Records
---
Amino acid sequence: MKKEDFKKYGYQLIDWVADYLEEAEKYPVKSTVRPGEIKDQLPVSPPSQPEGMDNILKDFNHIILPGMTHWQHPGWFAYFPSNNSPASILGELLSAGLGTQGMIWETSPSATELEEVVMDWLRQMIGLPEDFAGVIQDTASTATLCALLAAREKATDFATNEAGFPRILRIYASQEAHSSVEKNVKIAGYGRKNLVHIATDDEYAMIPGELEKAIRTDLKAGFKPAAIVATVGTTSSGAVDPLKAIGELASEHKIWLHIDAAYAGTAAILPEKRWALEGVEYADSLVFNPHKWMLTNFDCSAFFIRHPEILTRTFEIHPEYLKTGVDTEVKNFRDWGIQLGRRFRSLKLWFVLRSYGVEGIRKIIRKHIHLAEIFRDELAKDKRFEILAPVYFSLVCFRLNDGRPEEELNVFNRELLQAINSTGKVFMTHTTLKGKFAIRLVVGQRTTEERHVRLALEIIRTKTEEILKQ
Ligand SMILES: *Cc1c(COP(=O)(O)O)cnc(C)c1O
């Protein structure tokens, strides 16, 4: 592509993205294509000759766009958000333009040192103790895997890296822990049956007494407890495991404590939500995702670790071709995670933190929480609806409950969710809470306003009436 063309299309695409961010609302939130519909429109073989940008962009508009589900739509209430912002997009653009690969300090000193600095800013923002060091991972799943690998080596005095598992190691997480914990237990070689699911209380938080029982039973059986994964803001309902009580057990038995705060960690930048991380001083590691709720384009996951030397000893490799003269003076992030090559992700984070300032981000997070509370309060006024879990952050779990048997309620609410989403105006997802089908509404999209939440309420009521009439 000629430089002039690059500029022409570049400006054109910036215009497109700028409009998109304001007008995402004109699309149905959730793509309506059927499986295979996109593939059917694409050639099976790659083009042998160059094609012009006009053609490529035409196909983007006609083929790709209809197959998009719009995460930046203000009616996005599904899963958890993955929001972005103009500042983040510009940072991402520069990172792509520089095309740097920051595996070691020498391959771009700025990539390493900016990451150190912005990660320490984040550490301060969520109130972590000073001895936590940060590194950006692609996702929370990967960060938790890193934690479990480091815990594995710590528990076996680095013997597992050398010769495989010398004994059975056990991992503890609540029944409500994210599926990535189970996946990582498999990947890290612990074996799925060595993941002990701890029961939760009425508010879906881990019961420390049950954890204690499980640890004692395992010790008696000759197993070695290796790590506890506590969740702050569970995926199903936003529950908060009691870190202090869990931390005391971890510390008593010298078990690695990892905190998964993928979604809710962002809320800890608000003084009034700091309580959620009370007890964090016991933690060995913590992850939260700026790519969920902190206006930073996917992917960008913030992983903090108290003893980075355990992490680097777990991962380090010293091939001749990666040795440099400054290795003793700098951080080489290749030893802080699984991948060798690393994207320059701190650039977009830096852009976000500077262009909003901490206060600017706080304002948006507070607004989201406030909107979720409005939703909960308004919905609860209608006695046919039931709020199924406490709303600590911006996630509300609810269902219609008009007194019919549980089985029928589950069928009804599933149908209701489908009807809500078929409007294309809003998108919500579901979970089950103690066997009950629950609809989840999460506020976290940057452009979501009160009117979008009110529209969601109106849609819920209308669709409920429609189904009840059938
Ligand atoms: C979303 C989520 C994850 C997974 O996040 P990824 O960054 O997509 O891996 C893990 N844990 C919790 C509690 C989550 O909500």
Note: The chain has a mean pLDDT of 97.
---
Amino acid sequence: MNVKEKLSKIHSNIAEACQNVGRNPEEINIIAVTKYVSVERASEAIDAGIVHLGENRDEGLLQKWEVLGDKPTWHYIGTLQTRKVKNIIDKISYLHSLDRLSLAKEIDKRASGVVKCFVQVNVSGEETKHGLEPDSVLTFIEELKPFQHIQVEGLMTMAPYTDNEAQLRNCFQTLKKLQLEIQNLNLAYAPCSELSMGMSNDYQIAIEEGATMVRIGTALVGEESEVE
Ligand SMILES: *Cc1c(COP(=O)(O)O)cnc(C)c1O
């Protein structure tokens, strides 16, 4: 299947997930994660109708940015080293991996405009995963108040890699609950209305549990080895 066919399959899966829980599919944004694939493949995704592209390394983002420029809306979805902030911060619209104050400080210093950020939460508690513990998210967000260039759009998590549906739902529900708690504080700098959760193997479940942004790589643009 080419990207266009894969996208159409994903659209119908999203429609089904939305229908299951009475949501409007227009609430869901698809981020095509192009970290595994070439700029040609990323371009194919844009031609198929994709608006949002996600990368998890500064090299990958810069390489594609050189060619595609501002055509897509750029999302940085990986762990971001503080010293790399200056390379990419004015090229992206969204950062999905805000997880520490030192990073917030550097973003605030380097960005020329407001960066829409997701606070990354390690819901599953796996040691290999980045992000804040759920218990420390609220305090962390309160500490972000002084930073003029940071807007907390929402929360992000990576679910454990598992087929255990109950475990996945539990993870997404925890993030949703936390997101509502913060949204209800009505903080001007942290509207926190979005939920970045769901990847190739779990996006339908994530949508049923409230995701507004799904980050899809393999199921949409494939992996490099599949590119002809
Ligand atoms: C790679 C990656 C994805 C996409 O993963 P797939 O399973 O290929 O869809 C989503 N989010 C993050 C943070 C990633 O690093």
Note: Residues 39 and 149 are 29 Å apart (CA to CA).
